[in-house]
Write a structure and sequence with these properties.
Elements (H helix, E strand, L loop, with lengths): L1 H20 L12 H5 L5 E6 L4 E8 L14 E5 L18 H7 L3 E5 L9 E2 L14 H20 L4 E6 L1 H12 L1 H4 L2 E7 L11 H4 L5 H8 L5 H13 L6 H12 L11 H8 L5 H13 L10 H8 L16 E6 L7 H7 L6 E7 L6 H4 L3 H17 L5
Parallel strand pairs: 3-4, 3-6, 6-7, 7-8, 8-9
Antiparallel strand pairs: 1-2, 2-4, 2-5
Amino acid sequence: MLSFLRTMCLIHAFGNIFCLLGPNKNPEAHMNSEIIAYWGYPSEEFEVKTDDGYILPINRIRHGKNNAESSVPKMVVFCLHGLFATPGAWVSNPPNNSLAFILADAGYDVWLGSSRGSTWAKKHVTLNSDSKEYWDFSFDQMIKHDLPATIDFILEKTGQKQIYYIGHSQGTLIAIGAFATNQELAEKIKLNILLAPIYSVKHVKGAGHLGSYISLTAIKLLFGEKEFVPTVVSSEVGGYICDINLADVGCAAMMGFMGGYSPEQLNMSRIDVYVKLNLAGTSVKILIHYVQAIRSGVLRAFDWGSPSLNMQHYNQTTPPVYNVEDMKVPTAIFTGLKDFLSDPEDVEILKPKIPNLIYLKTLPDFSHFDFILGLNARKEISEEILTILRKYDSDIQL
């Protein structure tokens, strides 16, 4: 009997070890856009060519699972991801808690955009993604080229005159910059929804603040002048490493160090999917641009390093500022008090500058990634967004 008990104890001990080392087995951790069809939704993919030659994929979820036969015209909702992320950010959870699926099921025509340089968007008409020339971009080019090309493509395909815009993180910065400087583009936006808005980054915390301690020359020496490789490694390797239960805590800590800590919002069983779809590639030049913004406290175009070089690019000695006061689009913002990247102090700088702020929600327990990944994202974010959109659908002002 004693021998039997010892054997059972050994089996139990090895079982626990296997559970720690065994995989979480989320197949989506090894998918890209296939994740949409995996959950049973219609998946279409198009390519947009910008006027400077970058080719950007756009993913479309034309309808939800139960409204395919509806003859009612669907309003378009366009979602743009944040820094390092992919369009998969919007479908990182099962359908009951992924904003893109929730919008599609509610009757919207959902389009997911890509920013140049992410792991889903590395094509160019002439440039090879291994070249330094390909990676010579900051968020200025996303503001000037990527967003206008993408929105114009969607409008042409759908025949609509206006769309709803939803951005997260860098997707909000691109919106602010584009809608403030391109009034023709701004008129095509019926409502602008900003999740974890990025404008001033003076008070950014965690990993995002580390760059401010390093010289720009040192950043180039450390990471080169092409792709920011650490994020690609995190994405590709993380899908496998974070698939091991024992590594969950470390992977969660990595995301927390970047965006803020709110463990009560994190679904640990899906950390491998989150890393794969939300920590992908970008250029080193974008990181340098963010460091410039942290040091100056102002959102402005890329600083070329000298008055003469700035004069060559902008016809003025300093980079032009993106004035959010010029963004007239009706805007709703959702912010979190535990957010390291969209820090509450920086949000306070932004709020009074928005001339047409029609809605504001502050969530005490939300960090940066919780707006799209959090366990309570459906209740606190998605359902609120649906309420706002439905009021705008019927032209009822908030």
